[in-house]
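[Q] Does anyone have a clean structure-token version of this?
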Amino acid sequence: MATRPNRSSRPAVSALSVRPAGADIDNGRIALTRTAFIYSDKLWERGHGEYHPLKPERLKRTYELLEAYGAFDSEDSLLVPPRQATVEELGLFHSQEYITAVQQLSRGEKGVNAARYNFGTGDNPVFAGMYETETLKLGAGMVALELVLSGEVEVAFSFAGGMHHARPAYASGFCVFNDVAVAIHKMLAEGLRVAYIDIDVHHADGVQAAFYDNDRVLTISFHESGYYLFPGSGFVEEMGRGVGRGYAVNLPLAPYTDDETYVWAFREVVPPLVQKFDPDIVVTQLGIDTHYQDPLAHLCLTTEGYVAVVETIKSLAPRWLSFGGGGYELDVVPRAWTLAYGVMREQEFPDEIPSSYADKYGLTTLRDHKKPFLDDRMRDQARSQAEAGVEALKRTVLRSIQGRG
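[A] Here you go.
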């Protein structure tokens, strides 16, 4: 692991945000994007344990902050409960043996070899009610997908999901069932072309592997380099296999990558790729463990850079299904995902956090007003690696990717 950056701060000065085209005007009023937010208290009632970094409370706090802002007061912002995913839905990606093992472990049955499925202490502990909790997360994604595909909404946010590390027959990186992969399999069955954009600090290895030989799914992952961080993959050279060659895109970033470098790299690579691919739908994983205060990684984004990236995605998405993802600092995750939901709706939330939330959690502003201090050497090294990666992608996947035949 690299040494963590100095957390001393200086004022934020750059203006990175470039909002997409404004909301439509409907009979003299602003018509916001019709959106859905998938939520139930049951999503955070159980989790990986008191000392595990993935805290279900982050979901509760995010909902409470959005509620405090009145985000669901409008008829075009739907608050929709999740449902349990079915075994058939799980089976679109996961093996029956694995599904059965998770059910048995969840019930506390003896004689199941937990290690065979990568469960145990550490990243993937077994907990009572695990199957019900994790299938509810996956079911939230199914509800979100159904709302988007039906045309009821243009954007849906399954913020409890984004379990992009889970594999067909084992758990990985806090992820039991891969809701993203299941959702994309459903879209493929509908004949859709899917662009998947993952901005979690960890490489989207599970989703990439699921569609590595498929030219109807474009997977794009921006993440901290696998040289420094789990899962140790996601290098530029990983570009797909067979007909899928050129449809897996990775930009590994150096520790201390800041807003300016990240947003520059994202805008250099992602818009031309997505526009050339011409998807029917954009799927995203919006992890906020790229934030400079996150305890598990080493990138140095603020909410300003994060919002600039989400705004860029908004401008590219004909239809948009989004998942949450990583984020392990409880004072950061709710603010970032509230801002992301605002971008989805093209709605600007005031910077002053409503008193009902501020008094409870001690937070007063929605946006960051300080940036991490990084010396020139840190900035230059991070910028140099990003530039090299962008240039490599321009020489390879940006030239080879094909649009609709």
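[Q] Thanks! Anything notable?
[A] The mean pLDDT is 93.
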